[in-house]
Amino acid sequence: MPTFENISEFQLDAFREMGTIGAGNGATALSQMMNRKIGMTVPSIKVLPFSQVPDVVGGPERLVAGVFTTVEGPAPCNMLFMFPIESAMFLVGTLTNRIYKDQIDDIGKSALAELVNIVTGAYLNSLASFTNLKFMPSVPALAIDMAGAILNTVLAQIGIAGDNALLMETVFTEIEENVTGHFFLLPESGSLEKIMEAIGVIG
Q: Which of 8, 30, 61, 70 is the S-S candidate for 38 at Cβ 3.0 to 4.6 Å?
């Protein structure tokens, strides 16, 4: 059974291409929502152990905004999008034309959840087009907490195949300053095998 731990470079390239297409579609949707041009790129895609996930955003005690989405279908999986809190405040400020310095209010949280909903939807649509599988995402759940606490909560709720996650670094561009978010794909047991079979890169 494939796991992210033994994924090949060829298989990783397939995810990289899906991520690039998803980022392009997500940028188009965000630009339409905001009535201004927004860019999205995926400069880095890699596999890393769950234990290293908090380190990507500055360590387990780093305050972050995390948005978690469960995905049902023939290859169920889970998606976690995390931003350092400063990046999240800047991004929602850009979305809402407001200034956030200390905390994100309900309007900002709603805007951030909607943004991540659009981006994860774009990634899922790209994955669906590559695999011809159907994916049905849940309503995203937003939490603002330490990175380690968010990851522990997520892992306590879901069953995971292996001990690794796929990270797609996602950079939002063509705004006042680039903002980097970290998108993690966490497959449930058996799902990675089904995805690999569907895109013809298993083995």
A: 30
Among 88, 124, 125, smallest CA distance to 103 is for 88
Residues 183, 119 contacting (CB under 8 angstroms): yes
The pTM of the full predicted model, rounded to 2 decimals, is 0.89
DSSP letter at 139 equals P
User: What's the topology of domain 4-198?
Assistant: Chemotaxis protein chec (3.40.1550)
Cα dist. 201→1, 12, 46 in Å? 13, 10, 17
**CA dist., res. 63 & res. 32, Å (int):** 30
Q: How many helices (H) and strands (E) does the chain have?
A: 6, 7
* Domain boundaries of the chain, sorted by first residue: 4-198
**pLDDT in single tens digits along all 203 residues of the chain:** 567 777 888 888 888 999 999 999 999 998 888 888 889 999 989 988 888 889 998 999 999 999 999 999 999 999 999 999 999 999 889 888 899 988 899 999 999 999 899 999 999 999 999 899 999 999 999 999 999 999 988 888 776 656 788 899 999 998 888 899 999 998 887 888 888 888 876 55
